[in-house]
Amino acid sequence: MQDILIAIHEARHTYDSRRLFRPWLFAIVRHKTVDALRRNNSYNKALKRQYNSAQVSAQASGANSLDAHLDQGRLLSALSPRYREAITLTKIIGLSTAEAATELGISKSALKVRVHRAIGQLRQLLEADEL
Length: 131
Description:
By secondary structure, this protein is mainly alpha-helical. It has two domains: 1-39; 43-131, Orthogonal Bundle (Arc Repressor Mutant, subunit A), CATH 1.10.10. The chain contains eight helices and no strands. It has helices at residues 2-11, 21-39, 41-61, 65-69, 73-77, 81-93, 97-104, 108-128. Helix 1 (2-11) crosses helix 2, helix 6 (81-93) packs across helix 8 and helix 7 packs across helix 8 (108-128). It is globular and about 45 Å long.
């Protein structure tokens, strides 16, 4: 939390008052969170193992593994399951494009398209939810 507050303080000169505040703020929060998760490699590996075990158990029960295992929040739950899975695997868990594509059974380029479209939809949702 302190790293995020310091980053916001250090980046305050980059905020453009003609643009929305929340997307700027959440970009900083997202980047610092991802940095922290990547620094803590054991936590990252545990998330990968946890996702794999949740996927196996959810496939057995017929439920969507990400919906059954991860608390997605309001924004991610507004995405379609295909986009939500792509964002969760690449941006939250931190899998590489190749690993995430293999996990989902799609090509790397298809995964990149899903991630790009999901980010666009998230951006639209954030902009629609002004302060």
